[in-house]
Structure formats: structure tokens, C-alpha cells
Amino acid sequence: MAVPTDPSRDAAEGDRSVDSPAVPAVEVDGLTKVFKGGLGKRRFTAVRDLSLRVEPGEVYGLIGPNGCGKSTTMKAILGLLTPTEGRTSIFGRSSKEVASRQAVGFLPENPYFYKHLNGLETLVFYGQLCGLSGAALKARAMDLLKMTGLEDAADRRGGGFSKGMLQRLGLAQALVHEPRLLVLDEPTAGVDPIGSRKIRDLILEFRERGITVLVTSHLLEQLQEVCDRIGIMAHGKMVREGRLSDLIAVEDQTELIIENASDAMLEELKAVIAKGAASGARLIRAGNPRTTLERLFLEASEKANADEGKGVES
Amino acid sequence: MKGSYARFSLRRILALASATLTQLIRMRILVFLLIFSAIVVGVGFVFPLPTPEQQLKLLKDVSFGALQFFSVAMAVVATALLLPRDLEDRTLYTILAKPVPRHEYLLGKLLGLLALIGGGLIVMDLILCGVLYVRQEMVFQEFIAALRSEGLETPESTAEVRLMVDQQGLSWTLHAGVFAVFLKAAVISSLALMISTFASSTLFTVVCTFCAVIIGHGQQLAREFFFHRHLDGIWEKAASTVFAILAPDLQMFDIVDNVINGEAVPSGAMLSMTGMGAMYVVGYLIVAHLLFVEKEL
Q: What's the ipTM?
């Protein structure tokens, strides 16, 4: 599943190379957002003095419990909310400027589209909003429908789309103008494991192509597979931030994964470790590593598909 | 592929207008046109009245009633659905996360709706004209036949019937009446759009706009009753102006009675009505933009 491009994409690549490496893709500086209380309601501080920086080309995961301020932060970055204090910018341009959104593709959580427009019309509509037109736009829309596995739904109206299909259509509309930054809010919510895997693979492909991705998800295992850096939010604040490899490494432990080791070899290894007990070294756990439920599901599905294919051929 | 950003783009506005129009058409709102056609044909041919004047007047009266109902109902209900529905469905997020200034979003939505109302009114105008023309010719022939059977047919009596039928039949003032209905709908739509920028729900927008429409139709009477009797010249003028801003004076678009009675509509009155209508639409759009640009999504 490759991200479709067209020859004029080279021009966009050219634009990207003009960016100074010092200019971050996203910069949030001292963001505070206070929602005014209505009648009888108290003021609510959703985000407090939050700062973060996403470098061009990296995949940044923003995680945290529900109501911690992730979506508010994303809306502020997209200019949908005005910060009470602080500032946000995209590729050096203030989020307050409408022009800053030319570089962004946004997939909101649980997206909905006009129910009476079909898949193709929806993508053409969003493309036109980005200044695209004509046969090139139509071809691009068809490519994106194919990429997201919705080519059969090109003529079907959005009202009949399942949750997973809406999510994929949302991803396609976010990509329609080939943005340099993708903001994905829970991109795999409501998508089955195979679709979820496809979205994960796409994010990896975006990174290879130099597209910056800012993503939130509750599926931490998936984020772990794609993110370069992670920010953890709680109560509107950033509580941990850094490179994923640094954050999740347990520095005082070492992992060895050995294939086809005999019992004798394992006993020898245990004996060597026991000799080092004086220096504080000890064996914490030994056994067979376990696969993930997701991997098990995907392997079983792929095998079933292959068997079905063989059955049809024979 | 990457599009370029322009501060103002007619193409973006037209894309929004076209999506709005497609959306509304596919909601089968134009089924009303079929109902309208049935009403016009029914009134035109099924209910014969004693005089040709009454027959043609009834046809115009009922048709304009249906035209006004269609345009006002569309202006209030469809407009009230536009923005709150986009917000509830979060479609607004995906639209405004694209390089779309908020005033273009409002303009596109309003244009799409006005295109639907305008298109609907043109179709209904054509149906009305067609039926009216056929009916007026039938009425003329029936009365000439009646005169002939009674031996009263003379060039003078024929000319008299022709004059009377033409006065109540098809004329340009009919289109002026339809244009006035459109102007009124445009003012109500822009008012509903403005209310929807701060309303918390579709129902709130519908109720508030209907209240404004009712007040707007009785505004001249209310001004006369409340201000003219109790306030001095300057205060009366000031209070009337504030009142006129809060609820548009919709009576100024009521030239339909003149049209039904076959009276001419002076071009000066048409110009003044068009100017006032445009002023209300622009005014409400400016306020709608000021409210919407600050709206937290």
C-alpha cells in the first residue's frame, strides 16, 4: 500500500528542502487554554503552560488519559481554538494565520462527512478547498480511495459508510493536498486490526517520505512501533517527553533473545550469571518470549486468506 | 499537486456552495416543487369561479402563498441546519482545518442555500407562468363563447374581456413579485445564519428566527403603536432604527398583493426594496462573521 504521488510532488519536495532545519514543523510555546464557564459553570483550564516541538520528518506521539488536553492542544495547533496564553506555529507560521493550514492534513477523532456526498465527491470537495481542481484532482482522489481501500465506495454516499470506512476516508481527505504535516487524532479508533495495521504501515511510509506526523492514540503498542518521540500529558501538562528509545529503555537491565538454545546452554548461562551475584547481577526472568495478540490475529487472518485462495484455485 | 493559498478565493466559496446545494437537493427538499405544481394545476383547472377575474386572482393568490411558504420555510429551517449540523458532526473541523477563512465558509453556505431557493423559485415561477398563460387563454375563450351564445359578442365587448384577462393574467410584475419573495428569503436566511453562529442548537436557531420573522412582518404596526404615540421625533427615530436592526422590516417586501391585484410595481419601489434587502444581508453577514471568527470550536 504505497502513498500515491504525482510528478508535481517534486515541487513540494523542493519546497520542503527550502525549510531551514531550525524551523520546527510544530512549535507550541507556553500554551494555556482556559474555557470560560457558562451560566453557573466554573472556568476550566484544559491545558497549562504546555510547550512542545515536533521536528520536520519525525513522528511524534502525544499520549495521555481522556480529558488530559490532547485534543485541545491539537485544535490550538490547527487554529480551531485561540490560546488563552502562549502561541502555536506550523513550519514557523502562526496557527492564527489561515495560510499555515495549507501545510497540514487533519484527521479528527471519529470523523463524519457530508452524508449525501459519495466517496469521490467528498475528496474532490476537500481538494477544492485546498485550491486543487480539474482532472489532476480527480485522479488524486481516485488514487487515495485506492490507497485507503475505498475504491469500491467511490460512488457510495458517506451516509452508508461504516466507522472504519469513515476513518479511512478521513485519512484520504487529510492527504488530498499532499501536506507536509499530518495531525492524526486517534487514527485507528473503530478500525479493525487489519485496517489498523495498514494505517500504522502508512504512518511509517509517511515518515520515510519525510512527512511529519503528530499522532494521538490509546493503542500505545502501536504508537511504540511508529513514533520517534513521545509526549505524555496529564491534567493539561506535559509530564514526560523525549525519544521513545530513551523513555522506554530500562537502563539497568539487559535482554538477550536466543534462538534454538539447548537446555545445557541455558544452564551454563544461568551459572555464569550466578557467578556475578557478588556484583549485584541476577537473572530476573527466563522463558519463551510471547507474541502480541495483534500479531497472532494478523497471522491467523493472513493464513485463513491464503487457505481460502488455495481452495478457490483448486 | 499542492494547491496555492489565496486570501480570498471564489473557487473555495463555490466549492462550499456547491456541496451545500448538492446536500440540500439530495435531501429531497425539492419534492416541494412537485407539491407546488400539483397545487397550481389543481387551483388553475379544478376550481372554476364565476368571473374570469376571480379565477386568475385565485390562481395567483394560492401560488404566491405556496412560493412564500417554500422560501421562508427553506430560509429558516435549512439555514438553521447548516452550521450547527456541521459542528455536531465535526465536519466543520475538517473544513476549517483546511486553508479556508471562516468568512468564506459562511459565504459559501449562504450562497448554496440561496442558489437552492433562487433555483426553486425560478422553476416555480415558470410553472406558474405556464399554467397562468394557458388558464387566461382558456378563460378568454370561455367568456367569448358565452358572449357569442348570448348574442352579445361585439368588438367592444371582446376588447373589454381581453383587457380584463390581460390585466389579471401573465405580466412582468409577476416576476417582480417572485423577486421580492426571493429577497425576503435572502434576508431571513442571513438572519438565521447569524443566529446559528452563536446558537447552542438547531432548535434555538429555528425558534429565534421564526420569532424574528413574525416580528418583522408586524414591525411597521408595532413601531406605529409603541413609538409614534409615546415618543418624541428623535427618540422615535432612534427606537425605530434599533428595532429595525434587531428584526428586519419584512413588510417592505410584501408587494405580492399588488401583483395579485394586477397593479403595476414602480421601478423606484423595486430599487429601494432591493437596496434595503442587500443592506440587511450584508449587515447580518458582517455580524455573523464577527461572531463566528471568535467562536471556539
A: 0.83
- What is the rounded distance in angstroms from the CA atom of residue B95 to the CA atom of residue A127? 11
pLDDT tens track for B33-80:
778 778 877 776 776 666 777 778 888 888 888 888 889 988 998 888
In this complex, do A131 and B19 lie within 8 Å of one another by their Cβ atoms? no
Cβ burial, residue A300 (10 Å; 0-12/13-18/19+): exposed
> Strand locations in chain B, DSSP E?
none
A131 touches chain B (CB under 8 A): yes
Q: Supply A197's cell numbers.
A: 495495521
Closest residue in chain A to residue B28, using alpha carbons only:
A116
Size of chain A, expressed as the number of residues it contains: 314
Those of residues 28-57 in A touching chain B at CB distance below 8 A are: 35
The answer, for B296 touching chain A at a CB cutoff of 8 Å, is yes
The per-residue pLDDT for range A101-118, each reduced to its tens digit, is 999 999 998 888 998 899
Q: Is A291 exposed, middle or buried (0-12, 13-18, 19+ CB in 10 A)?
A: exposed
**What would the mean pLDDT of A279-289 be, rounded to a whole number?**
83
pTM: 0.82
Nearest to B97 among A12, A99, A104 (CB): A104
Residue of A nearest to B3 (CA): A131
Are the beta carbons of A30 and A49 closer than 8 angstroms? yes
Residue B97 to residue A173, Cβ atoms within 8 A? no
